[in-house]
């Protein structure tokens, strides 16, 4: 007989023989199996150890774990009360996530989303979201949670082993081993399949395909998703790992997506049907080699290409993009010393062509239009050196990254600017359960051009942070103080005036606690406050996402493979610059907005949201059936998202975030 534990590891065996003592085998993918003799009616705890690998995997990231605010595994994402099984949405429950637009784009500590980067298997993935809008933000990540082994999150001062990131960083690693299985899934908006197969003792492969459709979901949630007209998405993925020898390992990862959506949206005072479609594919290769017991080498390479189209009133623009990435890393480890050096080359190219309104505030059927055409290209060649030394209870680290300025080539591809990044931290291990980390750094990244903001500019970010961590068996507590100064432009802001800001200053405090109690309950609670401002011509204004407070609370009950959770989010509304009047411009055939004197001097109503998530795991022989039921915005709160004006700006009304949304489905895993 067999059984499954719940998310906390509790289990019970029924229907056993009359023997007073039985032998039990504990097993979990990625851990060493363990056998133990159990007596009838006994209560015991058993811990599984991580599997030992014959191949010494190139763990060049090991020294950076001191800076990781949180490490999430596959189970953490699935049991996250707000994630909906999506890797990037799982981050929104934590204090360091300053996302205020209900999207999957990672936004950390007040910075815009285009200053953070997502890496998978040490390769950067630009635009890591699906259902993306005109300014590049999207509702879901493009990563299949079943393929994720771990996800390390750096909300501030990310390690300079990674490049082209200015605020935070997410490092995703795919599966290191699999158990032969087939997973079939069906929901009111999707159908999918995943196959895991061991090809030999030294190789495995994973293949999946999903298709999303709109009919049942939109009919059931016609009020809550009234702005969404239609959508469809088809994506396929492949991950394969091969241990070539005791010292060599190869991993291949490939992904393709075809998506289309129609929704009603408001951009730059114009409200209408927004149609968008995208086709994208990328391929990643990772090679790891153990040169000796102290020296390791890693080679990472990827190619990413895509084609998209946006049609919104008078905007009709098609875009193509491609990214080539290569990196070579060498890592040395010995007696508390960890040194990594490497070289990276990143070639980014994109082009846009179509038509758009001549005046940003005039986008309707009779608006004047102009040709939209732009070609963007960028060479980024960087070298880096990072070292960490640990002694007793102290850890010291220093990271340096320098680009090699390149000249414009014959195809008009821009050479990178001349810049130097650095980062350092000191960690004090107070005792076995408490750590204190002081970190600081200067970072550089390039914005990604999109239809709304056609620019490719270098950004600079200076960061300083103090982080305290306490971890016990059933309690964890985190506290952070941070300060940031950002220079450069943002390409993901909806606030037109704010997008012109050249300098931002952000100060913040984060507190979070996770407590397990009464055996079956878990409470995750966080509080953050932030003071964020930007500079235009020497005058400082509050940013649109300047949030004095943000409360996030999630209560989960788990027993006998049944989980139910309630999640509450509470914060003030975002700020905006109100239009107080309009001035008719004949050549624009529209009214030009006249703004209030104080930029971001007005504020939307407070944001309150309560979500309900229920799931049940049902073992069927050696297989597993998973049922889930979710209700987002359970109380149907009308949270204000934007202001919609009449054509002459004499009147206005509010555009709202999603209302009450019901979602349910099931998956069957066959072993």
TrEMBL record:
<dbReference type="InterPro" id="IPR036942">
    <property type="entry name" value="Beta-barrel_TonB_sf"/>
</dbReference>
<dbReference type="InterPro" id="IPR037066">
    <property type="entry name" value="Plug_dom_sf"/>
</dbReference>
<keyword id="KW-0998">Cell outer membrane</keyword>
<dbReference type="Pfam" id="PF07715">
    <property type="entry name" value="Plug"/>
</dbReference>
<keyword id="KW-0472">Membrane</keyword>
<dbReference type="InterPro" id="IPR012910">
    <property type="entry name" value="Plug_dom"/>
</dbReference>
<feature type="domain" description="TonB-dependent receptor plug">
    <location>
        <begin position="96"/>
        <end position="168"/>
    </location>
</feature>
<protein>
    <recommendedName>
        <fullName>TonB-dependent receptor plug domain-containing protein</fullName>
    </recommendedName>
</protein>
């Amino acid at each position: 007989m067999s059984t499954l534990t719940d998310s906390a590891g509790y289990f019970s065996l029924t229907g056993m023989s009359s023997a007073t003592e039985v032998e039990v085998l504990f097993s979990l993918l990625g851990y060493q199996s363990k056998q133990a003799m159990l007596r009838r009616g006994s209560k015991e705890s058993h811990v599984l150890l991580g599997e030992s690998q014959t191949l010494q995997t190139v763990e060049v990231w090991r020294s950076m774990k001191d800076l990781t605010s949180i490490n999430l595994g596959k189970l953490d994402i699935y049991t996250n009360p707000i994630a909906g099984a999506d890797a990037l949405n799982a981050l929104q429950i934590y204090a360091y996530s300053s996302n205020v637009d209900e999207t999957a784009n990672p936004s950390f500590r007040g910075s815009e989303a285009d200053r953070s980067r997502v890496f998978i298997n040490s390769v950067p993935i630009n635009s890591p979201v699906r259902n993306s809008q005109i300014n590049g933000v999207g509702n879901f990540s493009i990563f299949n949670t079943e393929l994720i082994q771990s996800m390390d999150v750096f909300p501030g001062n990310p390690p300079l082993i990674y490049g082209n990131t200015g605020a935070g960083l997410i490092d995703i690693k795919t599966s290191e081993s699999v158990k032969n299985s087939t997973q079939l899934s069906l929901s009111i908006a999707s159908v999918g399949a995943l196959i895991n197969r061991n090809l030999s003792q030294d190789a495995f492969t994973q293949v999946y395909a999903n298709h999303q459709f709109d009919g049942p979901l939109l009919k059931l949630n016609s009020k809550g998703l009234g702005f969404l007209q239609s959508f469809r998405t088809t994506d396929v993925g492949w991950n394969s790992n091969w241990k070539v020898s005791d010292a060599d390992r190869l991993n291949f990862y490939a992904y393709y997506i075809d998506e289309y959506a129609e929704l009603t949206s408001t951009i730059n005072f114009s409200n209408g049907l927004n149609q968008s479609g995208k086709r994208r594919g990328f391929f990643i290769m990772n090679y790891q080699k153990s040169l000796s017991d102290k020296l390791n080498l890693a080679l990472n390479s990827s190619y990413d290409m895509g084609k998209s189209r946006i049609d919104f009133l008078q905007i009709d623009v098609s875009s193509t993009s491609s990214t080539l990435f290569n990196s070579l890393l060498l890592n040395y480890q010995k007696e508390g010393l960890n040194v990594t050096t490497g070289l990276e080359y990143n070639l980014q190219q994109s082009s846009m062509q179509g038509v758009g309104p001549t005046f940003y505030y005039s986008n309707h059927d009779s608006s004047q239009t102009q040709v939209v055409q732009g070609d963007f290209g960028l060479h980024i060649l960087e070298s880096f050196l990072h070292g960490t030394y640990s002694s007793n209870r102290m850890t010291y680290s220093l990271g340096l990254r320098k680009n090699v300025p390149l000249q414009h080539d014959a195809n008009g591809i821009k050479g990178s600017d001349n810049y130097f990044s650095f980062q350092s931290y000191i960690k004090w291990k107070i005792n076995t359960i408490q750590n204190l980390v002081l970190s600081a750094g200067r970072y550089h990244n390039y914005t990604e051009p999109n239809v709304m903001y056609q620019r490719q500019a270098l950004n600079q970010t200076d960061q300083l942070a103090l982080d305290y961590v306490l971890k016990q068996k059933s309690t964890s507590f985190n506290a952070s103080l941070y300060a940031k100064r950002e220079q450069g432009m943002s390409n993901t802001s909806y606030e037109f005036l704010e997008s012109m800001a050249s300098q931002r200053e952000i100060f913040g405090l984060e507190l979070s606690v996770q407590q397990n109690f009464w055996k079956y309950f878990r409470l995750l609670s966080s509080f953050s406050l932030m003071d964020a401002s930007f500079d235009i011509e020497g005058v400082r204004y509050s940013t649109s996402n300047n949030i004095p407070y943000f409360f996030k609370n999630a209560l989960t009950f788990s027993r006998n493979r049944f989980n139910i959770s309630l999640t509450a989010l509470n914060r003030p509304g975002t700020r905006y610059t109100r239009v107080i009047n309009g001035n008719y411009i004949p050549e624009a055939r529209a009214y030009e907005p006249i703004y209030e004197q104080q930029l971001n001097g007005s504020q939307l109503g407070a944001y309150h949201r309560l979500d309900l998530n229920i799931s049940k795991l049902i073992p069927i022989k050696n297989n597993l059936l998973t049922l889930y039921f979710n209700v987002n915005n359970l109380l149907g709160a009308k949270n204000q998202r934007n202001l919609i004006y009449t054509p002459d700006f004499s009147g206005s009304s509010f555009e709202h975030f999603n209302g009450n949304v019901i979602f349910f489905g099931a998956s069957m895993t066959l072993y």
